[in-house]
Amino acid sequence: xxxxxxxxxxxxxxxxxxxxxxxxxxxxxxxxxxxxxxxxxxxxxxxxxxxxxxxxxxxxxxxxxxxxxxxxxxxxxxxxxxxxxxxxxxxxxxxxxxxxxxxxxxxxxxxxxxxxxxxxxxxxxxxxxxxxxxxxxxxxxxxxxxxxxxxxxxxxxxxxxxxxxxxxxxxxxxxxxxxxxxxxxxxxxxxxxxxxxxxxxxxxxxxxxxxxxxxxxxxxxxxxxxxxxxxxxxxxxxxxxxxxxxxxxxxxxxxxxxxxxxxxxxxxxxxxxxxxxxxxxxxxxxxxxxxxxxxxxxxxxxxxxxxxxxxxxxxxxxxxxxxxxxxxxxxxxxxxxxxxxxxxxxxxxxxxxxxxxxxxxxxxxxxxxxxxxxxxxxxxxxxxxxxxxxxxxxxxxxxxxxxxxxxxxxxxxxxxxxxxxxxxxxxxxxxxxxxxxxxxxxxxx
Length: 445
Ligand SMILES: Cc1cc2nc3c(=O)[nH]c(=O)nc-3n(C[C@H](O)[C@H](O)[C@H](O)COP(=O)(O)OP(=O)(O)OC[C@H]3O[C@@H](n4cnc5c(N)ncnc54)[C@H](O)[C@@H]3O)c2cc1C
What we know:
Blueprint: E1 2-9, H1 19-27, E2 28-36, H2 52-71, E3 76-79, H3 83-93, E4 96-102, H4 107-119, E5 124-128, H5 150-157, H6 203-215, H7 222-225, H8 239-243, H9 249-262, H10 267-289, H11 310-318, H12 324-336, H13 341-354, H14 359-369, H15 375-386, H16 400-407, H17 412-416
Parallel strand pairs: 1-2, 1-4, 2-3, 4-5
Helix pairs in contact: 3-4, 9-10, 10-15, 12-13, 14-15
């Protein structure tokens, strides 16, 4: 039994199916529950440049977690410092003898954890995995032997039995008397809720969404509809709650198998599991490759032949390119903080192959905007599309005209999200910042 423990929440903002929290609840007399604002990738900007949509979802998730902890006798302490400093401060102030956390894929979170363990060897550090569907201990191979392609990974893990989610602790040890919890809400900007986002952060909203999804039989046709571009029903929309840890992958799997037992089991229901395995693959991929997740060459040796053009980058971010489908997707992303999987593939392919931009800046823009930002899925998918990741084909360029014909044949999506036409000019200046001739008015020449 320990005296005072810290529970460090990161991408597990929930009390249900949180084995690390359960362990802390059983092993300490007093507990301090903390959350530190997320680290940003090396290419990304400071956390305070996160979009309002992402911050709003995060704030809602934290508020609900704080409420749930309150019912168990605890409070959430949100700290603005990086975790390394925040935890060091708490250790200096209290007689901490144990620190708990759920395992994470984030290289910077894991580095902080490693440094803390190294610096405070007299403290017990315990990490438990509950982010992925498959527990790392269930893998039949060491992490450094993770297959280079998803298909090989899937074949190796498909027979692994997925554990059931565990219940929330019945109560939590109280915080130490002298630990003050300040009103953390003031760390966030004041939002008026975005009226067009259907997503609300928090564990109860995640569970509500999960139940509604399976009660409407949408899972039975998921495989046929999953490539849609707009609306709530064509894909599961579990990702925002999964990425923030409001829902665990095992809780989703348990609802999915319940549906298969009581309603229907078919190719579509299998495909939801298949996509969750993609998420697991990128989770283990991020753990295996560490800081290379953010490297220009990815996991390959060759440097992509792309560069950085400030004007093209700005136009892509603002949805003002000569590609209407891309513009529509970017407007949707900027307004709502969410984009379909097909939309993500199209805008990422455009970024790399049409605009010839360095993929890391696209990934970094997604990091700021996406309410379901997940370090492993985001950077892993970008590497894949940029040809520097785990794609055995090595090169994936989407034909934007063909894709528009298939997925938005009557331009309903393009019109709704103001994608415009093909007349936007990509470059108005050349590499030396000199105005391009064909964009100057004739009498200016
Ligand atoms: C360039 C790019 C960046 C991406 N960035 C992220 C990200 O930051 N966070 C994120 O959660 N997903 C990311 N994805 C994966 C995927 O687009 C989203 O998970 C999906 O669109 C979320 O919607 P959904 O929950 O309705 O997915 P569904 O189609 O219903 O899939 C169910 C679940 O499976 C998982 N999943 C599905 N496709 C993928 C995939 N390709 N890779 C990993 N997991 C997957 C997700 O957890 C998803 O919630 C990215 C994809 C691309 C191409």
